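Researcher: Next entry in the queue.
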Amino acid sequence: MNIDITEDLRLFRSELVAELKELLQPQQPHSKMWLRSSEVRKMLSISPGTLQNLRVNGTLRYQKVGGTMFYKSDDINQMLGEKPSKGGGL
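Model: Structure for this entry, 90 residues:
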């Protein structure tokens, strides 16, 4: 009995490669629910001091977890004039 599985293996390989590419694709920072200070500074093109001023004067809300400050991506998108995304919490 001669079984030819090469076509099945080719199909499996192409599906596997497609899924790996999807998984390894870098995420856009604004697609995450919470952003770190460095990501926010990069998105808004601002200095650490300007980001601190936005926090101090209440323009930008944040959550401090341990020693790291996190910002909601919806708040950043609102500052950029974009629609807020739907997503879960921290």
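Model: Residues 44 and 79 are 9 Å apart (CA to CA).
Researcher: Noted, moving on.
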